[in-house]
Amino acid sequence: MKRYWWLLVCLVALLCAACSDDSSSEKKSEYRVVYSGEIKTLNYLKTSETNEFAVAANLVDGLIEYDKYGVVQPGLAKEWSSNDDATVWTFKLREDAKWITHDGKEYSNVVAQDFVDGLHYVLDAKNESSTAWIATVVKNGEAFYNGELTDFKQVGIKATDEHTVEYTLETPTPYFLSMLNYVCFFPVNGKFIEEKGDSFGTTRENFLYNGSYILDKFEPQNERVLVKNELYWDKDNVLIDRIRYKYNKEAATVAPELFLRGEIDSASIPTSIIDEWFKDDKKKSQVRQTQNNFYTYFYALNFNPQFDAEYEPNNWKVAVNNKDFRKSLFHALDRVSAMLTLEPYNPKDLLSNTITPKNFVDVDGLDYTQLAPLADIANQDSFKKDQALAYKEKAMTALKGKATFPVKVLMPYNAGSPDWANRSQVVEQQIEKLLGTDYIDIIVEAGPSTGFLSEVRRPGKFALLEANWGPDYADPSTYTDPFTVDGTYNKPELAEGYIEANGKSKYQNLVDEAKSAIDTAKRYELFAKAEAFLIDEAFVIPYSVGGSGYVASKLNPFEAQYSPFGVTAEKFKGQQLLDKPMSNDEFKEALAKWEQERANALAKAAQ
Description:
Blueprint: H1 2-27, E1 30-35, H2 50-59, E2 64-66, E3 72-74, E4 77-82, E5 88-93, E6 98-100, E7 106-109, H3 112-123, H4 132-135, H5 141-145, E8 157-161, E9 164-168, H6 176-179, H7 190-196, E10 213-219, E11 223-228, E12 242-247, H8 251-260, E13 266-269, H9 271-279, H10 281-284, E14 288-289, E15 296-301, H11 313-320, H12 323-332, H13 335-339, E16 362-363, E17 366-367, H14 374-378, H15 385-398, E18 407-414, H16 418-435, E19 440-447, H17 452-457, E20 464-469, H18 477-480, H19 506-516, H20 520-536, E21 540-545, E22 550-553, H21 584-606
Parallel strand pairs: 1-12, 18-19
Antiparallel strand pairs: 2-3, 4-5, 5-9, 6-7, 8-9, 10-11, 11-12, 13-22, 14-22, 15-20, 15-21, 16-17
Helix pairs in contact: 12-15, 19-20
């Protein structure tokens, strides 16, 4: 009898254990997606690629973060202050933040020196940080980066005690808080990065975590898995326990079907099948618009072509240096036709006639894009058939005997984006039909889905390219800087005929003048003048704002941290999985409510 009683006890115990395990697993939430663009590094101090930011933002915290309305909140800093002219900023750190190893063990406390060490790494030119140019806002930062100073103690950052970090800036910078949401101001443990050297950020083991997640698995072109950091200072606000990214080189194509089968929790729905989704009652209830953001999209014309000889880079260089040729392309691009490949219902709502989007910053209630002379550009469509043809005739006359027609125009796209591929075909056909194949030959070419930025755009392996830029801080310079001599884009400073007496290009001088202005109204006025010049000379063709398209997702976009700049928007912290995807009607209702709540929150924060 005792033997049977003991077996019964063991059986009950096993059943209870099983129930307990099941209960525990039910509480664990997992967000699953597929991807095709692989990350090449975890080194957040070096990269400037969006998909690598998206990982880093969840692994490492900065001084500040934002709430779901875009109001700045304490991060690793619990409080801060600045002097009257916003040149000196002091941050008091929380004392409960920890550096954690890949296996979830405590490594050390996060201290003020970690921010000094992070900035030192970024501003050391040998590390080739892609975001160093942002960090030069700090006093002597540019001089140290250029080797004019060798003592980092002369750079405007210091740890005044274990939990206080102080920044001294080159000029008054009232928007400095917004810059801290960018990776170049993130901390790093100096001892750890010194030990790891060049291997820092190459594997999950060669990395330290102080953010909401730890990288549990990192197998490039297979899978990466983020798990909740149980030692995180704010772990109660981390509501998704695991994030699983599965590699699939055809991710953009297969994701909708995988979502319908319940294998993933989010998928972009390409324009090619969006009608099918909206006509199917079941699918319609699961798809919604995406929320517009402050990424700006434009077509860049390359003044430093580095592509293969078969595409005639020298001939392109001759042509692109003719303003009439550039203006013919500028006015020939039918942006509505192009946008229909992404937003078939309301394409005009997403178009942007300027590089800086509307509603980004304002002066006394007047939107920056409505400042003269930028307002004239902002308020009219650049697509004008008659002007495009008139500029074509002028260009052909001016370039006779100098350039060979048709001019070959190499226009690559990211092979991982079906919509981009489709749009490239539309743009090619539309412009060639208008301007004529006797004038231009647009060559559409598939680029890599992984490393497109580093392999195509940055090396200048294009003539014409759809590109984008996201703001790094709350100032117009964040949109004008990419086109300056130190910028990352199409090198308009190399355009012939624009060098002024001081040896700099006219555009560079306009931007420098704007940067030197302290008064906000004057500063914005000068930046508007610089941006208007950039566009009016057709160095770039503004196209649209970002965030367009449709998605099926179990995430509520209005729970996410919100910020137009930096990496905040990439964080999963604060979000939780919905029981069912949000429909488009539900999205529009939630958006209207969120916009009103945000306006109230911003007004309250400004008091």
